[in-house]
Design a protein that fits this description.
This protein has 400 residues and is α/β, with parallel strands linked by helices. Helix content is 28%, strand content 23%. It has a domain of 237 residues: TIM Barrel. Strand 16 and strand 17 form a beta hairpin.
Length: 400
């Protein structure tokens, strides 16, 4: 189906829905196809960890975990960690995607509900990026009187923190080895989106990947040779991310891949490495007002002149909300009026070819799914362009 016909069909379904507010849409047909692409590419060769920040909905996470057959999650925010651990069972494993202040980890444990059968001491891997932070977690484990699992972040070329040399890593592992009652070494994590995003004139993507994998492999070898008591086959050797996921399917030191955005494919992930994935999420918002010509404050007398012929300013529309981190995709010639300026309340858009009506829906593709999804009250799932179930984003709230 052509994209225009697709959106026109979805627009008709939304017109029959009981509400007319901005919605985050997930196309289940396209999502299913992306899941099939992922499952086919991995084929059991690597474990897969769902990146929760890119898919912040319990309904969506359950849908994916069932179809990808994984109980591994990566979490980046303590309030979401607190909510998620209330939902998971004793088979789940959580890896923190960034180092948390020890104070934040302590707050989590002090307010952990403990109502289910999730064990927050054995099922969470806390990420540590420096010797100093490790010492903080050692003190935290003693304060809690519980052994904590620690995963070490290594800098594989992104230069956003983490251990940058084998010497630093060696020293930190020696500390871990000397406190077995308090710290359990659970593995390594190295994130490498720079591999496909670094300008080609600065370094080829092939060379960037080789350098990244080489350092990761050297770290693994060092653990095996210098710290054999810490090495075991169940260690989490995590990496990738959506941009580089397809590059780690064959020759890679990783045993676990983490990704999330590729399954919904917002516009920031329109990358050559993800050409086999298709967009599966949109924003749909109704038109509230339609005005003949485009009148701007202070330029009222020039409205007709601006709108002559087939000018983009011939008609103006005000939509419900706006200023999302997203790009207009239907009608294909819709664009935000730059002179009027962005608005989170009522954005003005213009079209040249399309004749829209009040209550029609305008569609946008999010630039990212994380954060953007959290701006909406409801997620509408669609199949065959028809509305299916209503899902909800995770609502992280401050704990009492």
């Amino acid at each position: 189906m052509e994209e225009a016909a697709y959106f026109e069909s979805v627009n008709q379904s939304l017109g029959q829905h009981e509400r007319a507010i901005p919605f985050f849409l997930i196309d289940l047909d396209r999502l299913d196809e992306n899941i099939r692409t992922l499952n086919f590419s991995i084929q059991g060769r690597k474990a897969f960890r769902i990146v929760v920040k890119s898919l912040p909905s319990f309904d969506l996470l359950r849908y994916l975990s069932d179809r990808i057959q994984t109980n591994r999650y990566m979490v980046f925010h303590e309030p979401i960690l607190s909510k998620l651990t209330e939902q998971l069972d004793d088979q789940a494993d959580i890896l923190l995607g960034k180092p948390m202040p020890a104070k934040t980890a302590y707050y989590f444990y002090q307010h952990f509900s403990g109502e289910g059968n999730f064990d927050p001491y054995h099922q969470i891997q806390w990420l540590v990026d420096s010797e100093e932070r490790l010492q903080q977690y050692i003190q935290l484990s003693k304060r809690l009187k519980q052994r904590l699992r620690i995963n070490l972040e290594i800098d594989v070329g992104l230069h956003r923190g983490g251990f940058t040399s084998e010497l630093e890593l060696d020293r930190t592992l020696s500390i871990i080895k000397n406190v077995p009652d308090w710290i359990s070494f659970s593995g390594l994590m190295g994130y490498d989106p720079h591999v496909v995003k670094v300008p080609g004139w600065l370094q080829s993507h092939k060379k960037a990947l080789q350098n990244s994998n080489a350092f990761y492999a050297e770290c693994i070898s060092m653990i095996q040779t210098k710290h054999p008591s810490l090495w075991h086959e169940e260690l989490t050797l995590n990496g990738a991310g959506s941009p580089t996921l397809p590059l780690h399917l064959e020759d890679s030191p990783l045993n676990e891949l983490a990704a999330g955005s590729c399954l919904l494919k917002p516009t920031s992930f329109d990358l050559a490495t993800l050409e086999d994935y298709q967009p599966a999420c949109y924003i749909a918002t109704p038109i509230l007002k339609k005005l003949k010509h485009t009148q701007l404050p202070g330029l009222e007398k020039g409205a007709k002149l601006l709108s002559l012929g087939k000018s983009q300013l011939q008609n103006s529309y005000f939509i419900y909300g706006g200023h999302w981190k997203a790009d207009y995709c239907f009608p294909e010639d819709a664009s935000e009026n730059k002179l009027f300026g962005p608005s989170t309340n009522q954005s003005m858009i213009n079209t040249r070819k399309s004749d829209l009506q009040i209550d029609d829906f305008v569609f946008l593709r999010p630039q990212q799914s994380e954060q953007v999804m959290l701006q909406f009250e409801q997620i509408l799932t669609i199949r065959n362009q028809k509305i299916q179930k209503i899902w909800y984003p995770i609502r992280p709230t401050t704990l009492d």
